[in-house]
Amino acid sequence: MEMNGAVENYVAIENQQIELKGVTLLHLDEIRKWTRFMSILGFVAVGLLFLLGIVFLITFLTRPPMQADELGIFFGPWMGIFYVLFAVIYFFPVLYMYRFSINAKRSLVQINSGESSNELMAKAIVYLKKHFRYVGIFTIIFLAVYLVVFVGIGIAMLIK
């Protein structure tokens, strides 16, 4: 059974090892600190977005019908749903960044104590990959949505 080129390259890469020393470990430790800081800020932002979404939903649902019409029938619930949905979407890349920082820290502690930390560092790198893949996919999605909106606006302006 023959392997295709991609599988052969993967096997060749999988069998290779890298050794981190000196200044590279210092840079990795600094990256770990910043990713932890940014992930904590991200968790705070996710919590605030979620809370704001719930407040929008509750505020709209508890208002008398006359006051609800003044805000617009769809403003309250749709804004609340949008904020809650955006909080859920934003949660996962923040979680992956946090898990990267935790596993990188554990790996660096093991390296400093003279133990092997290949598995922990590999786990940390996997979470970093997941973070950037998630952010990349959603960036593409949002750019596509913006493109569709701008094209739609352009077409609507041409029709008038």
List the defining traits of the structure above.
160 residues, mainly alpha, 5 helices
SSE layout and pairings?
Elements: H1 5-14, H2 22-62, H3 65-71, H4 75-112, H5 118-159
Written account of the structure:
By secondary structure, this protein is an all-alpha fold. The protein has one domain. The protein is 86% helix and 0% strand. It has helices at 5-14, 22-62, 65-71, 75-112, 118-159. Helix 2 runs antiparallel to helix 4 (75-112) and helix 4 (75-112) packs antiparallel against helix 5 (118-159). It starts with a helix and ends with a helix.
Integer tally of domains: 1
Structural class: mainly alpha
Question: How helical, in percent, are the residues?
Answer: over 70%
**Quaternary state of the chains:** single chain
Give a summary of the structure in a few sentences.
The mean pLDDT is 85. With 160 residues, the protein is mainly alpha-helical. Helix 2 packs antiparallel against helix 4 (75-112) and helix 4 packs antiparallel against helix 5.
